[in-house]
Amino acid sequence: MNEIYEPSKNLSIDESMVLWRGRLIFRQYIKNKRHKYGVKMHMLTEPEFVVEKLMDGLLYKGRSLFMDNFYNSVQLSRKLLSKKTYVTGTLRSNRKNNPKDVIEKKLKKGESICRYTNDGICIAKWKDKRDVLMISSEFPHEMNEITTKKKRSKDKAYFSKKI
C-alpha cells in the first residue's frame, strides 16, 4: 500500500453507503448521509477489529485517527494509544468502561464535564442542543469562545491542541 499511497498523519474511519434504489432485504436508511438508502459498506465484525484491520501498516507512526461513535470506546482508545496512534471522536454513552459520573451528570446548556483515565484519555460531555460525549487520547478538554457570522458569540466546547 505504501508504494502507491502514503497517508497523512490525520486519518478518518466511517461507514459508507453505496446507493441502492432497488429492492433489497438488507438495504439501510441513514438520514445524514448523501445517499440515504443503500448498502452500508464495512466488514461484518466487531468495530475494534475493523479499525485494527483498516489501520494495518499505519500503526506505531504517531498518526491521529478521527472516528464516529460506532467505532469509539475507551478500550479501543487504550489499545491504539499503546500502538502510538491517537484517537478523537464522539462516544456512545452505553459503552463499557465509560466513567459513570460523566455519563450520568445532568448538564445545563453550555456546561461541560471531563474526566481523564490513568493513561491520559480524555472523556468529556457537554450540553448544546443535546448532550455530546467525546473521547480523545490526543487533545485536552477546553472551552473556547467562537463567533459565527449568523449567530452571536457563544461558548462552545471542543478539543484543542495546546501550543
UniProtKB/TrEMBL annotation:
Pfam families with a match to the protein in the record: DDE_Tnp_1_7
Residue stretches spanning the membrane: none
PiggyBac transposable element-derived protein domain sequence ranges: 1-46, 50-141
InterPro entries: PGBD
Highest taxon in the source lineage: Eukaryota
Protein name per its UniProtKB record: PiggyBac transposable element-derived protein 4-like
Organism, as annotated: Aphis craccivora
Lineage: Eukaryota, Metazoa, Ecdysozoa, Arthropoda, Hexapoda
